[in-house]
Design a protein that fits this description.
seven-stranded parallel sheet; 10 helices; disordered C terminus; alpha/beta; three-stranded parallel sheet; 14 strands; disordered N terminus; TIM Barrel; 2 domains; binds zinc ion; 311 residues
Length: 311
């Protein structure tokens, strides 16, 4: 499919025009993009054999993107605001990657199917997204939750699940990985995605505030793997403006999907340290303080790092 076209989910008029213009494809109607749409500039077809782990917030390497290239990723869906996110992406002919919570996929399979039908990539984000994170579960319990998520996501997306997940991208809740789980995923040829930057949309920001936060961070990093949450109404509300701003500021969208190309990786700059490890340590220390009867601090929302802390 041309990268500069969109699939079903377009407004009714576009659907009708596409219907009149030619036969419908399996995924529905295709309509041409508006000439000034942001679109997708290129697609990376990533070979996940042997696994890899990318995203500078957590790992000392990331995808070797060019200047002002952005990979859009959304976590924790499908959820109420997800269809609004999909509408915004369709309006700009942009493709993204959705890291699904398995129990949400089980509850809203039609939304997952729409993500797939519209050319987005779906990856996994555990079944239950426990607030304690995978790191606080036993290894066996963590593996069970991850596997249950694989099966629920695949059933929602494709109607069936095999012993191995069809889709081989994964992101840990709260970026709280463990060496044992990382090795287990790598042996199953599953790639682990962290993030290079995020919107801090686990905090209750207004859409305009969130937009300014994301844009200032993107200007600082000159692009990268961006973490957003399609479970957040504020993010869905600001997304049309974000995509317009990305276009006007010369950012380009890179879509990622599984494929046969060796993943283009680049190492972190000298002096790199993991930001998420510091945040996780703060959260665990705060919880330990609560258990010992000290003054409780607000818990991080939904098991994500950075609750209260400004990343
Ligand atoms: Zn999450």
């Amino acid at each position: 499919m041309s990268q500069n076209r969109r699939l079903s989910g377009a407004p009714a008029v576009a659907f009708l025009l596409a219907f009149l213009a030619g036969p419908l494809g399996a995924a529905g109607a295709e309509a041409p993009c508006p000439p000034d749409a942001l679109g997708v500039s290129r697609t990376l077809k990533l070979d996940t054999r042997g696994g890899f782990a990318v995203g500078l917030k957590t790992y000392p390497r990331t995808l070797a993107l060019g200047d002002h290239e952005v990979v859009l990723t959304f976590d924790d869906g499908p959820s109420g605001p997800t269809t609004k996110v999909l509408d915004a992406l369709a309006a700009e002919c942009v493709k993204a990657t959705f890291f699904l919570i398995g129990r949400n996929a089980q509850a809203l399979p039609e939304v997952v199917r729409r993500e797939v039908a519209e050319g987005h990539t779906v990856g996994h984000h555990t079944f239950s997204h426990p607030a304690a994170t995978m790191r606080r579960l036993s290894e066996a319990a963590a593996k069970e939750d991850i596997d249950k998520g694989f099966a629920a996501d695949d059933r929602a997306a494709y109607g069936a699940a095999g012993s191995e997940p069809r889709m081989r991208f994964f992101r840990f809740p709260g970026f709280a990985d463990t060496p044992a789980l990382n090795a287990w995923l790598a042996a199953r040829n599953i790639a682990i995605f962290g993030a290079d930057l995020w919107a801090s949309d686990w905090l209750p920001l207004s859409p305009s505030h969130e937009l300014s936060v994301v844009l200032s961070r993107l200007e600082a990093t000159k692009g990268g793997i961006l973490l957003l949450h399609d479970s957040k109404a504020q993010t869905a509300a600001m997304l049309p403006d974000l995509l317009r701003e990305l276009k006007q500021r010369g950012f380009r969208i890179v879509h990622i999907e599984p494929g046969d190309d060796p993943p283009p990786l680049r190492p972190a700059p000298a002096g790199w340290t993991s930001e998420t490890e510091k945040i996780i340590a703060q959260i665990f220390a705060r919880e330990a303080g609560q258990k010992s009867g000290q003054t409780p601090a607000p818990a991080p929302p939904e098991g994500h790092p950075g609750g209260g802390a400004k990343p």
